[in-house]
From TrEMBL:
Species in which this protein is naturally found: Arabis alpina (Alpine rock-cress)
Positions of the catalytic residues: 118, 335
Protein's UniProt keywords contain Hydrolase: yes
InterPro entries given in the database record: Aspartic_peptidase_A1, Pepsin-like_plant, PEPTIDASE_A1, Peptidase_aspartic_dom_sf, TAXi_C, TAXi_N
Full protein name: Peptidase A1 domain-containing protein
Any Pfam family the entry gives: TAXi_N
Signal peptide start and end residues: 1-17
GO molecular function list: aspartic-type endopeptidase activity
Keywords: Aspartyl protease, Glycoprotein, Hydrolase, Protease, Signal
Length: 505
């Protein structure tokens, strides 16, 4: 039966509900894959001050959160989400607060939405057709879509009396709409915001069910339907259809799917560091040799790690350990929505001094727009030292020069490279895409840890098809994502041969 279902899918792209049910029961924790699209053109240089302004807006969103009424602290991926975007801040070319977006399908019939990928927030929300002040065009070169709740055959309301609304959001009567819909209102530190109501509908994805089968899959999820937006969210030059939160909250799509055993309680990403950018974002575990893990700091709303020390060229910097301690306002956050990396003042000054002292006889230090840069006549790998970020659990993140420097054009015939680590305006250290690129990152929610390993993200990745409930004791089946097209073509050929044989007889 499974072979027949595979053959059906290979040719028609459809698996019947009966087959789908059988697959879901036989496969534990199917791998899910999504694709990310590029948000910015690569041919428009941007000033460092603009990047810092972009990140400040981003950090305001992270630090402020924004649920009203105590419902949710933040707003809001193996489904394979192919990634577009660049870690090169010189090529980002926009002040917008987003770097990557992907496509998701919701409703019946399904409608495709372009949504921002955000590991620093929880909720998936899209723009509702009833929104009166939401943008209708986008400067990102994408078509905007609106969710038509009355037009979806599978849409459902989340009422204020629904246990989901009362337990997760702690909604009060005043926060309910006139028709008893469970509402939300999120405000951000940059003055932007969104409001609307929660609903349920079908979420579509490609599920990797084993070594030889990808099936069109779906599951009902709770998400937000935005009827009002303000601030930057209303601007057409940076408009998308919504935000796809991958945070730790109960209503993130990761949490919703993994709690029902549909996906494993783990997600991963690999961001390409070259000029073309891109990569992969996976609901599931990417397998790579040499991965090291550090435990997540408990009871934190974001993905906090315990950074202990920093080494430059093998020498530990003189930084008071208290600078990295986690509290309500301090700590180290891993955030794909931030371009650069931000160190608290107690760590930034020793870091900058160590780098400059190490290379001052080999390059020409220069201040450009108030930032520390260097004029380099040859490869930075030959002149700049390695850096190690050392975390709890004995896990170190080794950084090459290109992981803490970025190319900022040319000056007097020499290449100008600038420090991509900035002094944090707040008390939190934030690890952005500059150091996250060219690495596999695994967010192991079940074991409460994050792992990483250096990797060429232009290559295909192996993912694990494991139990969605028990990652520790389950066996692992490895699958190379890039082989799926070949497998489907093979199934199609087999089925065609069978049909020919039947017709001949």
């Amino acid at each position: 039966m499974f072979l027949l279902a595979a053959l059906m899918f290979a040719v028609t792209g459809f698996v019947s509900p009966e087959f789908h049910s059988s697959f879901a029961q036989s496969a534990s924790g199917p791998v899910k894959i999504l694709t990310l699209e590029r948000a910015f053109p690569l041919d428009e240089p941007v000033e460092l001050s603009e990047l810092r302004a972009r990140d400040r807006v981003r950090h305001a969103r992270i630090l402020l959160g924004g649920g009203n009424g105590g419902r949710q602290n933040s707003v809001g991926g193996v489904v394979d989400f192919p990634v577009q975007g660049s870690s090169d801040p010189y090529l980002v070319g926009s002040k917008t607060t987003m770097l990557y977006f992907t496509k998701v399908k919701l409703g019946s019939p399904p409608t495709e939405f372009n949504v921002q990928i955000d590991t620093g927030s929880d909720i998936l929300w899209v723009t509702c057709s009833s929104c009166s002040n939401c943008p209708h065009t986008s400067g990102l070169g994408i078509d905007l879509h609106f969710f038509d709740a009355p037009g979806s055959l599978t849409a459902g309301s989340v009422t204020c009396s629904d246990p989901i609304c009362s337990s997760v959001f702690q909604t009060t009567a005043a926060q309910c709409s006139e028709n008893n819909q469970c509402g939300y209102s999120f405000r951000y530190g940059d003055g932007s915001g969104t409001a609307g109501y929660y609903m349920t509908d079908t979420f579509y994805f490609d599920a990797i069910l084993g070594e030889s089968l990808v099936a069109n899959s779906s599951a009902p999820i709770v998400f937000g339907c935005s009827t009002f937006q303000s601030g930057d969210l209303t601007k057409s030059d940076k408009a998308v259809d919504g935000i796809f939160g991958f945070g730790k909250g109960k209503l993130s799509v990761v949490s919703q799917l993994s709690s029902r055993g549909i996906t494993p309680p783990v997600f991963s990403h690999c961001l390409k560091g070259d000029g073309s950018g891109g990569g992969v974002f996976v609901l599931g575990e990417i397998l790579v040799p040499g991965i090291v893990y550090s435990p997540l700091v408990p009871s934190q709303p974001h993905y906090n790690l315990n950074l202990l020390s920093i080494d430059v060229n093998g020498q530990m910097l003189p930084i008071d350990a208290a600078a990295f301690e986690t509290s309500n306002t301090r700590g180290t956050i891993v955030d794909t929505g931030t371009t650069l990396t931000y160190l608290v003042k107690e760590a930034y000054d020793p870091f900058l001094n160590a780098i400059t002292n190490r290379v001052s006889q080999l390059v020409t230090p220069i201040i450009s727009n108030g930032e520390q840069c260097y004029l380099v006549s040859t490869s930075i790998s030959d002149m700049f030292p390695s850096v190690s970020l050392n975390f709890a659990g004995g896990a170190s993140m080794m950084l090459r020069p290109q992981d803490y420097l970025f190319h900022y054009g040319f000056y007097d015939g020499a290449s100008m490279w600038c420090i991509g680590f900035m002094k944090a305006p707040e008390e939190q250290t934030i690890l952005g895409d500059l150091v996250l690129k060219d690495k596999v990152f695994v967010y192991d929610i079940a074991r409460q840890r994050i792992g990483w390993a250096n990797y060429d993200c232009s290559m295909s990745v192996n993912v694990s098809v494991t139990s969605g409930k028990d990652l520790v004791n389950s066996g692992q089946t490895c699958l190379n994502i890039s082989t799926m097209d070949m497998l489907l073509k093979l199934f199609s050929s087999i089925l065609l041969a069978l049909l020919v044989c039947i017709s001949l007889t």
